[in-house]
Design goal:
Elements lengths: L4 E6 L13 E2 L14 H19 L4 E10 L5 E13 L5 E7 L12 H8 L14 E11 L2 E10 L5
Parallel strand pairs: 2-6
Antiparallel strand pairs: 1-7, 3-4, 4-5, 6-7
């Protein structure tokens, strides 16, 4: 399955770090051909530095998560439910662990929750494109886009190796 991710990166400040030139391909943006050239490597470097900082910050917090999966029948009636409430905390060694607070017997009959699904529900899956992982992705600069009052850059990101 191919996954393509689209990132809109707000341009505020940039860290001065270098990214190998093969990581980014600059596309010509017809609407801003007279504007200053875009330094895609610098954008990727700044973005991934902030993503790395985000991931490290996330490791300082505990939180509660409620996962609800429902199947719906005719008229929008709930025909089955999977409900799991967990608290994510740290153990004595500083490792994040999940403590299940509430987990009533699931009533799903139209689908099966697999072990892989349970692993996904039990983990922390925010996609953070960290500096250490940029070599695993291809970046293509798409252009500039204004979102509300923010001038942003749009970059297509795709894994170099697509999992089966």
């Amino acid at each position: 399955m191919k996954r393509f991710l689209l990132f809109a990166v707000a341009l505020t400040t940039f860290a001065s770090a270098s990214v190998p030139p093969i990581l980014a391909q600059q596309a010509v943006n017809a609407s801003s051909s007279t504007a200053a050239p875009v330094n895609v490597e610098q954008i990727i470097s700044a973005f991934t530095a902030k993503e790395t900082e985000f991931r490290q910050g996330l490791n300082q917090y505990s939180f509660k998560r409620e996962a609800i999966i429902q199947t719906l029948g005719l008229g929008g009636q709930i025909t089955g439910e999977y409900n799991r409430i967990s608290q994510f905390v740290f153990d004595d060694q500083g490792n994040r662990i999940e403590k299940i607070i509430r987990f009533p017997m699931p009533t799903l009959t139209e689908l099966v929750v697999t072990q892989e699904d349970l692993d996904d529900l039990g983990g922390i899956q925010p996609f953070a494109l960290e500096t250490s992982k940029i070599g695993q992705y291809n970046f293509t600069y798409v252009g500039k886009e204004k979102i509300d009052e923010l001038n942003t850059h749009v970059i297509d990101v795709a894994p170099k190796v697509v999992p089966d």
